[in-house]
């Protein structure tokens, strides 16, 4: 299942978006979130028809558990990615909170398209309500910026000045972003960092920490096969996709996003 996401999700960038009616024919469904569990989950997906990606303001979809039960019918809202790079593509995803009653194989049906996905008893990643691990991360005090991220300039150096362990010990609320801008498997990686730049402008005193997926970012740019995962991947139980966590003053995870999180979605947990 993981290979499925890594191969087809980036291809969405090259498809133009089209508005459409509630009835979608020749639909292809691309799920962006794959670490799902029994209970409440943020579920995101994109859908395309024969003409390109769909960007209706909202669409109604159905979920069916293994054996056809239970059945959930839900309306999903479209979240457009900020067009920081003036592509005028209007890329985006559909997102909603879904409550899954049981684990196992589920089916998502959008128009005449459908795709299977798996729900675990407990997700692999840290959940809302869990204490955030006191992970060790490097900062600009120990390394230069090329050794901290695969991103390209302009880079917000404020994201590389805080130690996670220090923030937890000082009871600071903060945002933790884990991703590798140059090699992320999710097409929203670029917009996410830019959105965090906007957050940092409005919330100047809020610490934001970016940790690259790979511990050897300067080397991995020219030799991807020899990439080494950062320890934080293991600490938070996450994969090589893009992740964002919001940590409260008491060190608890209060929000978790796999894939792109909009300014409004992040701000909801800051206020």
Structure write-up:
There is one protein chain. The two termini are 36 Å apart. It contains six helices and 13 strands. It is of the alpha+beta class and 271 residues long. It is globular and about 55 Å long. Strand 3 (39-49) and strand 4 form a beta hairpin. The model is unreliable at 1-21 (pLDDT under 50). The protein folds into two domains: 2-119, Immunoglobulin-like (Sandwich); 145-270, Glutaredoxin (3-Layer(aba) Sandwich), CATH 3.40.30. Helix content is 17%, strand content 30%. Strands 1, 2, 3, 4, 5, 6, 7, 8 and 9 form a nine-stranded mixed beta sheet that branches. It has a four-stranded mixed beta sheet with strand order 11-10-12-13, with helices on one face.
Chart the SSEs and their pairings.
Elements: H1 2-8, E1 17-18, E2 28-31, E3 39-49, E4 52-54, E5 58-64, E6 71-80, E7 92-100, E8 104-110, E9 113-119, H2 164-169, E10 174-178, H3 189-202, E11 208-211, H4 217-220, H5 231-236, E12 243-247, E13 253-258, H6 263-270
Parallel strand pairs: 1-4, 10-11
Antiparallel strand pairs: 2-3, 3-4, 3-7, 5-6, 5-8, 6-7, 8-9, 10-12, 12-13
**Structural class based on helices, strands and sheet pairing:** alpha+beta
Distance between the termini: 36 Å
Provide the succession of SSEs: HEEEEEEEEEHEHEHHEEH
The CATH superfamily label of the largest domain reads Glutaredoxin
CATH topology of the largest domain: Glutaredoxin
* Gyration radius, in Å: 19 Å
Mean pLDDT: 88
pLDDT < 50 stretches? 1-21
Secondary structure: helix percent: 10-25%
Please indicate the count of domains: 2
Q: Which second-level CATH architecture of the largest domain applies?
A: 3-Layer(aba) Sandwich
Main β sheet profile: 9 strands, mixed
**Share of β-strand residues:** 25-35%
Tell how many strands the DSSP assignment holds. Answer: 13
| CATH class membership of the largest domain | Alpha Beta
């Amino acid at each position: 299942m993981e290979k499925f996401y890594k191969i087809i999700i980036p291809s969405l960038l090259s498809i133009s978006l089209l508005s459409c009616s509630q009835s979608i024919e020749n639909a292809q469904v691309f799920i962006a979130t794959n670490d799902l569990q029994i209970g409440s989950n943020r579920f995101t997906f994109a859908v395309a028809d024969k003409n390109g990606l769909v960007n209706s303001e909202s669409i109604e979809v159905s979920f069916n558990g293994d054996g056809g039960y239970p059945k959930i019918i839900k309306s999903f809202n479209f979240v457009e990615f900020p067009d920081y790079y003036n592509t005028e593509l209007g890329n985006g995803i559909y997102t909603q909170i879904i409550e899954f009653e049981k684990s196992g194989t589920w089916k998502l049906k959008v128009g005449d398209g459908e795709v299977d996905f798996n729900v675990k008893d407990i997700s692999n990643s840290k959940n809302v309500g869990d204490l955030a691990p006191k992970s060790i991360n490097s900062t600009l005090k120990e390394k230069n910026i090329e050794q901290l991220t695969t991103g390209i300039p302009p880079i917000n150096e404020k994201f590389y000045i805080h130690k996670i362990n220090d923030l937890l010990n000082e009871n600071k609320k903060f945002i933790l972003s884990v991703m590798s801008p140059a090699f992320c498997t999710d097409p929203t990686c670029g917009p996410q960092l830019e959105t965090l730049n906007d957050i940092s402008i409005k919330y100047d005193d809020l610490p934001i920490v970016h940790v690259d997926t790979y511990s050897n970012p300067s080397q991995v740019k020219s030799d991807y096969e020899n990439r080494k995962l950062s320890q934080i991947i293991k600490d938070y139980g996450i994969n090589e996709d893009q992740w964002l966590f919001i940590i409260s003053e008491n060190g608890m995870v209060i929000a978790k996003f796999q894939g792109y999180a909009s300014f409004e979605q992040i701000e909801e947990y800051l206020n």
